[in-house]
């Protein structure tokens, strides 16, 4: 009997908790000898594949030389290498790099930078605009700027107020633009968005032109534009950043997940020179007040530097394009299925909604589907009745086919009502 309290897990349901002992590429191997295909990149982090030799070697090498060093007023090679590597491939306007440990902290840092910017300029704007159905992490600030719902009902009394801009669903973009214009006019510190696809909100996609229009409205009103590319970064959407497809550059950019190729935790918040300048003075009270014990941990930075080297030396975007093509082809099959109500694809991320009496995250379909996929040797974790496939870029054709075949089986079982939690 384990003492471990797992995240996003209802232990009262007694669902099995597989014990993984080894991973390689898109594969996981369990203590009881099973081979499992990782269809969700271990919660959206693994890009090049598990235990990529260059990343694993960089971690081992760095761990033997410098494990950890305070980062307030000190620096080290791997952090400098990551900063230089990011400068080489990220938008030139994002001149400054602040390190933290997770996507949630990258978002907290972004929000604090935005408020610090306005305070130090003597114009204390503090209202944050957010996009409906958004997700930005599970700390209090990150939850505050994310969608309210069952995930955070117990904590709601502590969450700060935000203004929510309606999601720009296809055909409803003008309502989004009107609301954004109105809220920007009323005065706001920043607008935080997931570019092109809202992950935890159900893999909801919107048009690059809409992202470009939203960015333009913010620029017009001086509202800082925060792009949370924690999930969309590092090739997921078909390009290095989702923002690229809209031809925009945010004022603040959050990156994590694939920053180390998904091997170890690390995050960065990148900012423009204007945001840096607002914190620059001879007055210590104007400095940026944020730190965590492991800020820019050298071992994590060595993994990120290896990831950046892989992006430099290897045809990563070709692999992304190949996977995106295979995903689009695979998604065509379930598209007309009677148990499938909608499909969506963006780059390497493909999603479909299964017909359900009780859609939403707590749909009973979720646990039933997880068990079905595990039986088929697959790690998939539907968001309620939304099944998505987001594998590492190295996944083999047969393994990808196995995922889509199991999804097809699930749809069939829902259509013939032999699935618990399904309609009927
Ligand atoms: C996962 C995610 C986060 C939170 O990242 P953690 O590392 O889990 O804290 C924030 N924003 C987006 C868009 C994410 O997908």
TrEMBL record:
<feature type="binding site">
    <location>
        <position position="228"/>
    </location>
    <ligand>
        <name>pyridoxal 5'-phosphate</name>
    </ligand>
</feature>
<keyword id="KW-0808">Transferase</keyword>
<keyword id="KW-0663">Pyridoxal phosphate</keyword>
<keyword id="KW-0032">Aminotransferase</keyword>
<dbReference type="Pfam" id="PF00202">
    <property type="entry name" value="Aminotran_3"/>
</dbReference>
<dbReference type="InterPro" id="IPR005814">
    <property type="entry name" value="Aminotrans_3"/>
</dbReference>
<dbReference type="InterPro" id="IPR005815">
    <property type="entry name" value="BioA"/>
</dbReference>
<feature type="binding site">
    <location>
        <position position="43"/>
    </location>
    <ligand>
        <name>substrate</name>
    </ligand>
</feature>
<dbReference type="InterPro" id="IPR015424">
    <property type="entry name" value="PyrdxlP-dep_Trfase"/>
</dbReference>
<keyword id="KW-0949">S-adenosyl-L-methionine</keyword>
<dbReference type="InterPro" id="IPR015422">
    <property type="entry name" value="PyrdxlP-dep_Trfase_small"/>
</dbReference>
<feature type="binding site">
    <location>
        <position position="291"/>
    </location>
    <ligand>
        <name>substrate</name>
    </ligand>
</feature>
<feature type="binding site">
    <location>
        <begin position="292"/>
        <end position="293"/>
    </location>
    <ligand>
        <name>pyridoxal 5'-phosphate</name>
    </ligand>
</feature>
<feature type="modified residue" description="N6-(pyridoxal phosphate)lysine">
    <location>
        <position position="257"/>
    </location>
</feature>
<dbReference type="GO" id="GO:0004015">
    <property type="term" value="F:adenosylmethionine-8-amino-7-oxononanoate transaminase activity"/>
</dbReference>
<comment type="similarity">
    <text>Belongs to the class-III pyridoxal-phosphate-dependent aminotransferase family. BioA subfamily.</text>
</comment>
<feature type="binding site">
    <location>
        <begin position="103"/>
        <end position="104"/>
    </location>
    <ligand>
        <name>pyridoxal 5'-phosphate</name>
    </ligand>
</feature>
<feature type="site" description="Participates in the substrate recognition with KAPA and in a stacking interaction with the adenine ring of SAM">
    <location>
        <position position="8"/>
    </location>
</feature>
<dbReference type="InterPro" id="IPR015421">
    <property type="entry name" value="PyrdxlP-dep_Trfase_major"/>
</dbReference>
<protein>
    <recommendedName>
        <fullName>Adenosylmethionine-8-amino-7-oxononanoate aminotransferase</fullName>
        <ecNumber>2.6.1.62</ecNumber>
    </recommendedName>
</protein>
<feature type="binding site">
    <location>
        <position position="135"/>
    </location>
    <ligand>
        <name>substrate</name>
    </ligand>
</feature>
<feature type="binding site">
    <location>
        <position position="257"/>
    </location>
    <ligand>
        <name>substrate</name>
    </ligand>
</feature>
<feature type="binding site">
    <location>
        <position position="381"/>
    </location>
    <ligand>
        <name>substrate</name>
    </ligand>
</feature>
<keyword id="KW-0093">Biotin biosynthesis</keyword>
<keyword id="KW-0963">Cytoplasm</keyword>
<comment type="subunit">
    <text>Homodimer.</text>
</comment>
<comment type="pathway">
    <text>Cofactor biosynthesis; biotin biosynthesis; 7,8-diaminononanoate from 8-amino-7-oxononanoate (SAM route): step 1/1.</text>
</comment>
<comment type="function">
    <text>Catalyzes the transfer of the alpha-amino group from S-adenosyl-L-methionine (SAM) to 7-keto-8-aminopelargonic acid (KAPA) to form 7,8-diaminopelargonic acid (DAPA). It is the only aminotransferase known to utilize SAM as an amino donor.</text>
</comment>
């Amino acid at each position: 009997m384990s003492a471990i309290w797992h995240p996003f897990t209802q232990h009262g349901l007694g669902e099995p908790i597989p014990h993984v002992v080894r991973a390689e590429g898109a594969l996981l191997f369990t203590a009881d000898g099973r081979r499992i295909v990782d269809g969700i990149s271990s919660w959206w982090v693994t890009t090049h594949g598990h235990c990529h030799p260059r990343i694993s070697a960089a971690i081992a090498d760095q761990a033997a030389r410098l494990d950890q060093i305070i980062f307030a007023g000190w620096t080290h090679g791997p952090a400098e290498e990551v900063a230089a590597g990011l400068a080489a491939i990220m938008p030139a306007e994002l001149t400054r790099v602040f390190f933290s440990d997770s996507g949630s902290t990258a978002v907290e840092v972004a929000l604090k930078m935005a408020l610090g910017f306005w305070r130090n300029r003597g114009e204390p704007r503090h209202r944050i605009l957010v996009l409906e159905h958004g997700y930005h992490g599970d700390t209090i600030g990150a939850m505050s700027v994310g969608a309210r719902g069952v995930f955070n009902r117990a904590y709601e009394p502590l969450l700060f107020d935000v203004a929510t801009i309606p999601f720009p669903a296809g055909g409803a973009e003008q309502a989004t633009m009107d609301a954004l214009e109105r809220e920007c006019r009323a005065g706001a510190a920043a607008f935080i968005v997931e570019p092109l696809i809202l992950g935890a909100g159900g893999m909801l996609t919107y048009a690059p032109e809409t992202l470009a229009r939203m960015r333009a409205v913010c620029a017009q009103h001086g509202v800082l534009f925060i792009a949370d590319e924690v999930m969309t970064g590092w090739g997921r959407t078909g390009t290095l950043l989702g923002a690229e497809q809209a031809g925009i550059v945010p004022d603040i950019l959050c990156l994590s997940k694939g920053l180390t190729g998904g091997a170890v935790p690390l995050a960065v918040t990148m900012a423009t020179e204007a945001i840096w300048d607002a914190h620059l003075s001879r007055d210590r009270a104007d400095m940026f007040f944020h730190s965590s014990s492991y800020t820019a941990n050298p071992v994590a930075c060595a993994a990120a530097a290896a990831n950046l080297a892989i992006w430099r030396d290897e045809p990563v975007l070709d692999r992304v394009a190949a996977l995106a093509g295979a995903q689009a082809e695979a998604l065509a099959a379930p598209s007309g299925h009677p148990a499938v109500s909608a499909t969506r694809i963006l780059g390497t991320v493909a999603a479909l909604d299964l017909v359900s009496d009780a859609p939403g995250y707590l749909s009973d379909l979720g646990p039933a589907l997880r068990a079905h996929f595990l039986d088929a040797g697959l790690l998939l974790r539907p968001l309620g009745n939304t099944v998505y496939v987001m594998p590492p870029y190295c996944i083999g054709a047969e393994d990808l086919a196995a995922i889509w075949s199991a999804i097809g089986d699930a749809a069939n079982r829902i259509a013939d009502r032999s699935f618990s939690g399904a309609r009927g």
